[in-house]
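Table S2 (continued). Query chain:
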Amino acid sequence: MSWLRALRETARSGLEIERRRLEPLIAVRGAAGLALVVGVSLALFGPVIAAGSAFGAFQAAIATFQRSWRPRPVLALVSGVSLAVSTFVGYVTVSHTLLFLALLVLWTFAAGMSWAAGPTGGIIAGSNVSIMLVTITLPTSVLDAAAHAGMMAFGGFVQAALIVLFPVRRWGAQRDALADALAGVADYARRLRNDPVAPFDPVPLMTARNAAAVTPRQARRRPADLHGARGVAERLRPVLASLADPALGVPAEGPERYWVWEILGAAGSLLDSAARAVRHGDPVQLDETALSVLKSPDTEVILTGPPRRAADRLVSLLADVIEIAEGTGTDDRTPGEPLVPHRRRPTLLRLVPVVQRSMRREMRRGSTILRHAVRVSAVAAAGYLLGAVLPFGHGYWAPMTAVMVMRPEFTQTYSRSVARFMGTVVGVAVATGIVQAAHPNAELSALLAVVSAGLMYLLMRTGYAVSQVCVSAYVVFLLGMAGDDWSQTVPERVVLTLIGGLLAMVAYAIYPAWETPRLRDRLAAWVVTDGRYAATVLDRYADPASRSLEDVRTALLTTREARVAWQEALETARHEPVRHRGISRTSAADAQDALAQFGRVAMLMEAHLPAASATPVPEAAGLADALRRATEEGAKAVRERRIPDWGPVREALEPRDAAPGQPPPDSFVRNGATLLLRALDDFSQALEIGSGRA
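Corresponding output:
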C-alpha cells in the first residue's frame, strides 16, 4: 500500500462515528463525581486548585471506562494517585528546563513501556503524562503544587467512592464477556447446520477467559452465574464440530445428518437463552421445542458410534450451562481434573513484579513496545521545546497532543492524529466562541466544563474524533475557570495541536515498527503451536492413562493465542505503507485457511479423546513425534522463505503391518492424521503459489 492510500484510509478510519450502546448512568455518575470535586475545591480553595482537582477527577473517570477486568474503583484510585505524583514531581522540576526535560523523557519512556502490561496501563500512563504537561502550569509555589496533587488524588477517591456507592451493572463487563462467548458458540452451532466445516472465531472465548480471572477479593463476591459457564462453553465447541463434521462425524446426507441439524439448532437456541440470562442477570427462559429435541429418544435410534457419544456429551454440557446460568452450577473444570475455584488474578501489589518482568522482556532490539517508548519520549521532549520556542504561549498543546495520539501501532497513531486535530478544531472553536460571547465567571466555566466532560463520558465509545471535541472544550473551559488561557486564540491552539499531531506522524515514519516484515514470523509461530497441539492430542491416544488433559488444554490455548496474533498482525499489515516481503495477500489468506483446517482436525480428535482406561494406540506416539519435528522444521522453512516439507509425517503414515502382539492400527487416528497431513500440504501449496507470484 502506498503512503498516500495509507494516509487516506487511516484518516477516514479516525473520523468514523460508530453506533454504540450508550451508558448514560455511568456518564452521569462520572460527571457527578467531577462536579462534586470541582464544587468543593472551588468553595474551599479557589478556581486554580479547583482546576487541578478537576483534572484528577476527570482522568480517574476516564480510567474506569478502559477495557479492564479489575474493579473500577481500583482503576480510579490508581489513576488519581499516579496523576497527583506526576504533577507534583513535574512542578518541582519545571523551573529547571534541562532537569524537567530529563524527567519528561524518563516519565514518557516509562509510560510507553507500560504498554507491555497491556493497553489499559499504557493508556492511563500516557494520559497522566499529557495532563501533567497542563497541570504543572497552574500552581505558583511548591505548597500550591502539593495542594493540587492532593486534590487530584482526592478526585480519584471521589470517583472510586461513587462507583462503590452507586454501582451500575455490577460485574457488567464480565457478564458481557461471558454472554458474548456463549452467543458465539450458539452462532457456531447454527452455522454448522449449513456449513459442517464452518470457521470459529476464538476471540470471544479468549476474552471470557481473561474476564474469568479474579483476585481473591473478587472471587468471594462473584455471582454464581459467572462461575463455570466459560469452561463448559470451551468444551462445547469441539463437541459441536465433531457432531457436524462429515469426515469424522455423521455422513453428509441421510437421516443422521437431518437429525444433527435439529440437534445443532436446539443447542444454538438454548445457548442463546443462557447468554441472555447471563448478560442481564435474569432467569433462563428455555425453548420447550429445543428441549424436546435434545431429550428425544430418537437420538439413540438414529445416531451410533462417535456421533452418538458426541450427542450425549452435548446434552450433558448444555444441562451444565443452563444450571450455571440459573446460578445453581459451580463446575469450572475439565472432566478428570480437580475442581478449580477460579482463575487467579494478581492483586495490585503482586502485579508490580509481573509488570517489571513484562517490561524487561520488551527491552530488546526490534520490540514494538520499546520502539513506541523511544518514539513517544523523543516526541514529547521535541514538542515541549518547540512549544516553548514558538510565540504562541501555552505551548503544552503540542506535546500533549503528541502523547495522547501515539500508539505502538501505525494505524491507530495516524488515525488518532487526524481525529485529534479535527476534534480540537471543532471543540476549541466552539468553546472559545462561548467564552468570548458569554464571558463566563469561574462558576459558569466550571459548569460548562462538567457538561463537556459528561458528554465525553457518554459519547467516547462512538469515535475518537467525537470525544476530542468534548475534551478540547473541557480543557478550554477549565483553564478559563482558573483565569488562564484566555488570551490564546483559536488559530494558536489549533496550530499547536497540528504540530503535535505532525510530530507523532513523522516520528512513526522515521522510526517505525511495521508488522509487515514480521508476518512470516507470526505465521511460523502459529505452525509450531498448531503442530504441538495436534501432537499433544495424539500423545493422549498413545498413552491414555499417563497423559493429563491439562497438557491438551495448555496446547490449545497456546495455538489459539498464536492464531489471534497472526490475524491481528495480518490486519495491521494490510493498512501499512509497506510492500509485502515474500508473502502476498492471497498466499497469506490461503495459508491461514490451511492452518485453521489443521487446528480444526486436531480439535475434532480432541473431542473423542479416549478415557484413561482405554486401549493405547502405539502408532499415535510415532505420529505425534513426526508432527512435532515436521512443524518445527516447517516453521524454520517459513521464516527462511522456503517451502516446508512434511516428509516425516508422510513416512509415519505409510501402511505397516502390526507387530506380533500389537493391536491393529486405529482407523480413527489414521483418518485424523491423514486429514492433518492434507492440511499441511495445502499450507505448503499456498506458500508455493505465493512465492511464485511474489
